[in-house]
Amino acid sequence: MNGPRVHDPDRQRAHVNLMAHLEHLREIGCRVPCMDHPAAEWTSEDHEDQQYVARLCSSCAGLSRCRDYITNHPEPGPAVWAGLTVADRAPRRGRPKKRKET
Ligand code: SF4
Known about the structure:
By secondary structure, this protein is mainly α. Helices cover 50% and strands 0% of the residues. It is globular. The structure holds iron/sulfur cluster (SF4).
């Protein structure tokens, strides 16, 4: 995970709060995989690399706060956030499928 790439005071505040939360989790012995692995793995443009690190997020103690952050402050760029790859975070295109009436 990298810092916010878009200049936005609200985003920067939210990012600082998220990082403080993650640091606190580490201080009390919780796992935060993106702080233990090389940053390059989290920002790789390779889809397989992204899928690999996205799986690591499932064991992260800060997953829900990270998910809140990236939902409210979508980040451009290839980084994996909260177990979501770039493709996972891309807006869906096309019409939603119709449900069959039962
Ligand atoms: S959920 Fe993933 S990207 Fe978010 S803080 Fe945890 S390890 Fe990092």
